[in-house]
Amino acid sequence: xxxGATKPASAAAPPRxxxxxxxxxxxxxxxxxAAGTGAxxxxxxxxxxxxxxxxxxxxxxxxxxxxxxxxxLQVARGETVALLGPSGSGKSTVLKAVAGFLRPTxxxxxxxxxxxxxxxxxxxxxxxxxQNYALFPHMRVADNVAFGLRAxxxxxxxxxxxxxxxxxxxxxxxxARRYPRELSGGQQQRVAIARALAIRPPVLxxxxxxxxxxxxxxxxxxxxxxxxxxxxPDVAIMYVTHDQTEALxxxxxxxxxxxxxxxxxxxxxxxxxxxxxxxxxxFLGAANLxxxxxxxxxxxxxxxxxxxxxxxxxPADPARAFRAGETxxxxxxxxxxxxxxxxxxxxxxxxLTGSQWRGATYRLTCLLDEPSGVEVRCDVATMDxxxxxxxxxxxxLPADPCVLVPTGTQR
Amino acid sequence: xxxxxxxxxxxxxxxxxxxxxxxxxxxxxxxxNSLWILPPLLLVGGFFLYPLALVVKQSFIAKDGTxxxxxxRETVDSPQxxxxxxxxxxxxxxxxxxxLVLGFFLAVVLAFVPFPGARLVxxxxxxxxxxxxxxxxxxxxxxxxxxxxxxxxADELGAGQPLVGFLYSPWCVxxxxxxxxxxxxxxxxxxxxxxxxxxxxxxxxxxxxxxxRVVTRILxxxxxxxxxxxxxxxxxxxxxxxxxxxxxxxxDVTTLPMxxxxxGAVTFDYPGACVVAVVEVALSLALYGLYRFVFSRTGxxxxxxxx
Lengths: 411, 307
Ligand SMILES: Nc1ncnc2c1ncn2[C@@H]1O[C@H](COP(=O)(O)OP(=O)(O)OP(=O)(O)O)[C@@H](O)[C@H]1O
Ligand SMILES: [Mg+2]
What we know:
Order of helices and strands of chain A: HHEEEHEEEHHHEHEHEEHHEEEEEEEEEE
Number of helices of chain B: 15
CATH class of chain B: Mainly Alpha
CATH superfamily of the largest domain in chain A: P-loop containing nucleotide triphosphate hydrolases
Number of domains of chain B: 1
Number of strands of chain B: 0
CATH architecture of the largest domain in chain A: 3-Layer(aba) Sandwich
Shape of chain A: elongated
Strand order of the largest sheet of chain A: 6-7-8-3-9-10
Distance between the termini of chain A: 28 Å
Largest sheet of chain A: 6 strands, mixed
Strand content of chain A: 25-35%
Order of helices and strands of chain B: HHHHHHHHHHHHHHH
Structural class of chain B: mainly alpha
Bound molecules: adenosine-5'-triphosphate, magnesium ion
CATH topology of chain B: MetI-like fold
Helix content of chain A: 10-25%
Shape of chain B: globular
Oligomer: heterodimer
Structural class of chain A: alpha+beta
Number of helices of chain A: 10
């Protein structure tokens, strides 16, 4: 499920809290000495290698509008970090600042220790893929892919070889003589990826590369991106998306953004399993958030924590320290909940208000009796034994303790 | 007006029901609809084709009334004519080339280099399109004429002779025409550039292309249709430019329109004027034909490109 688990490279990229960045700059020298082999690509990941991308305090303002506020993120060589967040949260702004398409109001961008904050985009050597492909319409596919190599004055034969190689990589070798307008959307996006890869960038930035494609094609290309990721063990990738499926499938770590800020950053599976905030829980995996009272003082991750929902007291897994009586949110993914007859022992009383067939599962919506008005979504495999719409039901919480997160935006 | 009668002759059918079959309606309707083209036809015929026909006819009738190619032979053979033709083509081609180069780079700057007041300049470009062309010549005279601002300043500084004699050379005519007609090239270019997605240029830059490469490899190819449109319009207009040439009054610079004016209004050689005018019209039409031909081909090839 999590791509990170399949890749040895991710081991070199221990998740780091966003704040601990001070150690990054002064170890630049180690990377330079290590970079003996290969055209400018630093050698294997060592603890002293500076991150491939190092963003500190990045702030972007357009007049009164703050598009990005004090953003910190490090991406290690070979690591994929997904920027996930709702529309307008500043994801593209981060990418544009790293690529050099905009001038940040404050903050620094370093690539393998080299400060590029004020460097022109054509000097940075970053591969960029954007949502609408941005292919050059008057050039054939091969010329599109060769563009970066020609700009770098790579010798002719070498260019031809690398163009063929890049097109091969994305499965577009047969289309070299076509014009972009003669390709489908998915094919155009492959060419855009090949064009970015042809220059062999140490850093690849992808801004919602699949969002202009239909669902089936998106799934296809997602698989290809995973394969491509495995073929590029040294490339640091920043992947912007508002689709959690893409983030879960591709990323080693996920950075969740909201309102121009980084809200959460952690390894993909950890962020999914133990979301630290209400926002991340809801955004990543569309979890149910059920208001609950903390029964007794508890520390972060305490094993004996309990929470009270309505008349029910359940074990909980606190995401931070809580005090007794505090209101918090129990995180429950729809597929972990069960529907039983009303009044069954240890269930939350609720009313079934809707059901939607989704093929593999039914998505049921229920309104809790206590606390009233809270909607809970629940995925079940079969409707056998599920009462009719409008009837009372009992919602069974998962056997494992639910994660307990603070309410609202507080941490 | 005789033109009315000749041009409209096939159209009037005083008795439609007689020719229409029994159901009548569709045919009658068609006939009524076809009447709509009469007014424009009359206008074109009366105000353009008829005078043009008169001019062509006049060019074959000498002053003494003899009909034939005499006037043509005489006029076309004169050094005055070949000179004017040469000047016309030279000035038009050089001015157009100047407009294309200057217009392209001004449009690139205006469209892609953010600077305060870019919108204002853009509006200004539109305004120039509405100006009469001789105004620019007048302005040039004020600036660079013998009694103009520049020479007056040079005088103050102690230079005895008029410093800038450039006003009276063909180059000044070209300079003035470039100044005036550049906006005609910029307008379609700015429209074309407005359609170029910014991220296309950004991606090109990220691939390692410097500004010059981005402009020449990405923008220029996309601007070709707009350049063709603006350039051919400018070439047509500069071929026929009269006001600027007349007002600048450069020595020894006679163009075809000037020659028409000289023959028709100064020496009263109407047949000669008509010959020159017909050549001028033919030149313009040929150019227009070429433009349509070229544009229909590149236009078809690029139809998908713009999308
Ligand atoms: N040129 C600009 N001028 C003013 N505000 C801008 C500009 N570009 C972006 N913004 C603002 O900055 C904020 C962040 O924009 P950004 O494009 O980074 O969002 P995003 O997370 O990529 O959203 P989406 O998922 O819709 O692409 C938005 O509120 C946007 O309105
Ligand atoms: Mg975006």
